[in-house]
Amino acid sequence: MLKFLFTVIRRDVLLAARRRGDWLTAQFFFVMVVSMFPLGIGPEPSMLRTIGPGVVWVAALLASLLSLDRLFADDYRDGTLEQMLMSPSPIALLTLGKAIAHWIINGIPLLLIAPLLGIQFNLPAEALWMLVLSLAIGTPILSLLGSIGAALTLGLRGGGALVTLLIMPLYVPALIFGAGAVEGVLSGTGSEAHLSLLGAFLMMSLLLAPWVSAMALKVSVE
Amino acid sequence: MLSANGLACERGERLLFRNLGFELGRGEALLVVGGNGRGKTSLLRILCGLSAPAAGVVRWRGDPLGKAHEQYGREMAYLGHANGIKDDLTPMENLRIAAALNGRELDAGTATAALERVGLSRCMDFPARVLSFGQRRRVALAGLMTAGALLWILDEPLTGLDVEGVAMVERMIRDHVVAGGLAIMTTHQPLVLDGLTPKTLSVGE
Amino acid sequence: MNLYHYASPSTFYPLAGKLIPWFAALAFILTVVGLYIGFFVAPTDFQQGEGYRIIFIHVPAAWMSMFIYVVMAFWSAIGLAWNTRLSFVMARALAPTGAMFTFVALWTGALWGKPMWGAWWVWDARLTSELILLFLYVGVMALQAAIDDPRRADRAGALLNLVGVINVPIIYFSVTWWNTLHQGSSVSLTRAPSMAQTMLWGMLIMALAAWMYTIAVALSRARTLVLERERQTEWVRAQLEGQP
């Protein structure tokens, strides 16, 4: 069981390593979206500090969505997805492995870049830590819920835009708790409550999302 | 071993076939015949468990496919229209990862032997992207050989292969069936399995 | 009583055909009565003047918008569990009406907000949740519109509905939480003045009218869907030849 999970993860990471161009696109997308905001709003430091956490979080949502529509699509096209669906292991493990791999490939880099972007927004050191921490708990949620959308829209026209439409509303709690935690540090109201709620949401996604996206995959491949 | 009863399949609102059934035991082959768009591929996908029939049931060793998922996954190998190999991986990596996903360890020696048998000894270290269509089909065939499956389900296994490749596939299928395996296939080309007459099943008349 | 009998499309179609006029008539009568009470009988509110009367549309619409989503999820679950086609059809037939009520609730909310809060839109917890609910409706409809194969469209939509309905309480909770943390200029909706008896009656009657309307519209939409999907079958051919 676990071996299958690890094989799926290793496979996807290996494939991403062979296609670094695609991978870099998503990371630069994240950096650019965040950098556009000061240009649109103005360089006033206190203003930037207020909007900083939210902007970084929204950009993280968008960056994760950008890479999501290809989560299953590439494997679907060359037939490897069918082969994996016919493997002896439960399909929910496949979707879980794919979501974890997506997080390793796209989520972890966001954690590393986020502090740099936070500095651009004039965030103090504690807030930067909290930003990384909240993203560390929150980005797996994005990958897990996103895998449902990717499975539902597999092989459809305009899949990318459609995933965004379906999944964005489901991301709302993660955004609120995640950005809220950073803001709690900035305003001094504390962020434990936010983090625990974010953690609870992560647990729930971890338990439910792989099953749902396994069912969705079966529906879509049929 | 494999039995199908009262299978029906709909695509959109069109009924492709209904009340289709057969039994297949060890050492038997089944050739599915029928024109384009009659539902041959749909039938094979139902037999693989990839899609559910509109009616009827497929059983493997007496259990419906839904229940036998794990065992069936280990004992069945499917070769579809798509080759099921990743362009960014070398043929060797493709074989070994596919085996690992099926819960088996495949050592480099066995994989090399299989690739040599399908005539790819010179391309083992290139990513599959640079291979020709026929060569990629051969990688998929090597995967079929190393899968160690009892039941082969082959959708148009001869497409894209040259004369020598066709002869090789025919030999592969024959050896597999003679050794006690089961094979189900569709093809538009003549298939000569010498000393072996497959059962036939015609779809959607 | 055999439920499967009513779940078969060939029974459903004529039955729904007979029921629709009744529900439509009830919806019409109740709307007229409800609006009459709302606009002529109910007293003028001493705080908000005449403007408050929009709640006779706003509140029932908001109720329905949430309720329909739950009903859709219910039909989706039944469809996925027992593979009954009619359940999927019902879920699908309800979506546009639900989205319509959500939109009406938002729109009338904005109209009401202008005199009350001095702004067309405030990021009040309820308004925000309602907006996200609208997004969820749009998502389901967009997904089903993008899929050509009706079988896949039904199932994919149903799965999305179920995911949505699990998420709706979490979204509502998170938005409320977010809203209390950002208390700025917010005027709480809950501080509604104690309601006169007639106002309550007017609202309930309007809610009932919305119910009847929903049933009538959903049934007629479901009828069309059934006819379209079963057009290959004998009973549909007989049906179509019967009424040239």
Number of domains of chain B: 1
Instruction: Assign a percent range to the helix content of chain A.
Output: over 70%
Outline the biggest β-sheet of chain B: 5 strands, parallel
Distance between the termini of chain A: 25 Å
Order of helices and strands of chain B: EEEHEEHEHHHEHEE
Total helices of chain B: the number is: 6
CATH topology of chain B, what is it called? Rossmann fold
What can you tell me about this protein's structure?
- The complex is a heterotrimer of chains A (222), B (205) and C (244).
- Chain A has 222 residues and is mainly alpha-helical.
- Chain A contains nine helices and no strands.
- Chain A has one domain.
- In chain A, 86% of the residues lie in helices and 0% in strands.
- Chain A starts with a helix and ends with a helix.
- The model of chain A has no long low-confidence stretch (mean pLDDT 92).
- The two termini of chain B are 27 Å apart.
- Chain B is an alpha/beta fold and 205 residues long.
- Chain B has one domain: P-loop containing nucleotide triphosphate hydrolases (Rossmann fold).
- In chain B, the strands form two sheets. Chain B has a five-stranded parallel β-sheet with strand order 6-7-8-3-9, sandwiched between helices. In chain B, strands 2-1-4-5 form a four-stranded antiparallel β-sheet, with helices on one face.
- Chain C has helices at 3-7, 9-41, 55-82, 85-117, 125-146, 150-181, 197-229, 234-242.
- Chain C has a domain at 52-184 and 194-225.
- In chain C, helix 4 (85-117) runs antiparallel to helix 5, helix 4 packs parallel to helix 6 and helix 5 (125-146) packs antiparallel against helix 6.
- Chain C is built from eight helices and no strands.
- Classes of the chains: A mainly alpha (222), B alpha/beta (205), C mainly alpha (244).
- Chains in contact: A-B, A-C, B-C.
- The A-C interface holds A 148, 152-153, 156-158, 162, 165-166, 168-170, 172-173, 176-177, 180, 183, 189, 197, 201, 204, 208, 212, 215-216, 219-220, 222 and C 132, 135-136, 138-139, 142-143, 146-147, 151-152, 155-156, 159-160, 162-164, 166-167, 170-171, 173-175, 177-178, 181.
